[in-house]
Write a structure and sequence with these properties.
It is a single chain. 78% of the residues lie in helices and 0% in strands. By secondary structure, the protein is mainly alpha-helical. It is built from 13 helices and no strands. It has one domain (2-286).
């Protein structure tokens, strides 16, 4: 079940990243973060009320608060990077954040077998190559790489924190709700500060554009929430190292979505990377 939930996480995160990247090409990135997370808060709040998840409140929710503080900064950096560079390049670099939860897993006692260790190495290499790394070029490309690396560390930290935020399903609902409320508070404060400095929260075309994009914004927010939930379950049911690596295959999904929808052509190195990621997945799942 660990592999199943972790792979579901990859699918959800990959589609959320693709949708978020598209939205930031016409709506300010910080607005995308705040609105998508606010819509997720409304849905999660309803779930928390109907399931009685409030009874699961406890000190472990501070992990959710921590994830909520780090998450908006990571998402903002990542969405800006996606808007600057091709998704097939930026997204795989973002997966390097897997180093954080894998390191935590090893520190707390996870000991994957030799086959799984091989799978971890093959999968990480495949994910990076799936983007056809392009670290040279114009200053804009270098900026995209820097933003992506910042986002990667943030994403990895969120994975490690949210896995510790609950031990039950209803507790997970509450933890995700607290995380998203914190996301909105932190992101909203950043958006307010940006507007005060002369920035804008509205896209060209005004509120009408945001209203038209609400279904897409809701999808991005809810897919991200669902991905955090499936990852937390995967990390609780099996070795964190295995769950983290399988969950970090989402860039392959983003690259394939960019290929299918935006017609971004996959280079030979990207196709090879996708193949290696698949091999690594098989090794991890069967090791």
């Amino acid at each position: 079940m660990t592999a199943l939930f972790a792979l579901a996480t990859s699918l959800l995160w990959g589609l959320a990243d693709f949708g978020g990247g598209l939205l930031t090409r016409r709506i300010p990135a910080l607005t995308v973060v705040v609105v998508s997370q606010l819509l997720a808060v409304l849905v999660l709040g309803t779930v928390v009320l109907t399931t009685g998840a409030w009874s699961e409140a406890g000190p472990q929710l501070w992990y959710a608060v921590g994830a909520g503080v780090v998450g908006p900064a990571a998402m903002l950096a990542f969405y800006k990077a996606l808007a600057l560079g091709p998704m097939g390049v930026v997204s795989p670099l973002g997966s390097l954040g897997v180093v954080v939860p894998v390191s935590v897993g090893l520190l707390v006692g996870d000991r994957p077998g030799l086959v799984q260790f091989a799978g971890i190495g093959v999968a990480i290499l495949g994910v990076v190559l799936a983007g056809g790394p392009e670290l040279r070029g114009a200053p804009v490309q270098r900026q995209a790489v820097l933003l992506t690396l910042v986002a990667a560390f943030g994403f990895g930290s969120v994975m490690a924190l949210i896995a510790e935020a609950s031990t039950t399903v209803t507790g997970l609902f509450l933890a995700l709700f607290v995380q998203r409320v914190t996301n909105v508070l932190v992101g909203g404060a950043a958006l307010f500060a940006s507007v005060k400095r002369g920035g804008t929260a509205l896209p060209e075309g005004g509120p009408r554009v945001i209203r038209a994009a609400l279904p897409a914004l809701a999808f991005v927010g809810l897919a991200d929430v669902a991905a955090n939930g499936t990852y937390a379950i995967a990390a609780q049911q099996g070795p964190v190292t295995v769950a983290a690596v399988l969950a970090s295959l989402y860039p392959v999904v983003t690259a394939l979505a960019a290929y299918g929808v935006l017609k971004e052509r996959l280079r030979a190195i990207q196709a090879a990377g996708a193949g290696l990621a698949l091999v690594g997945t098989v090794l991890l799942a069967t090791g």
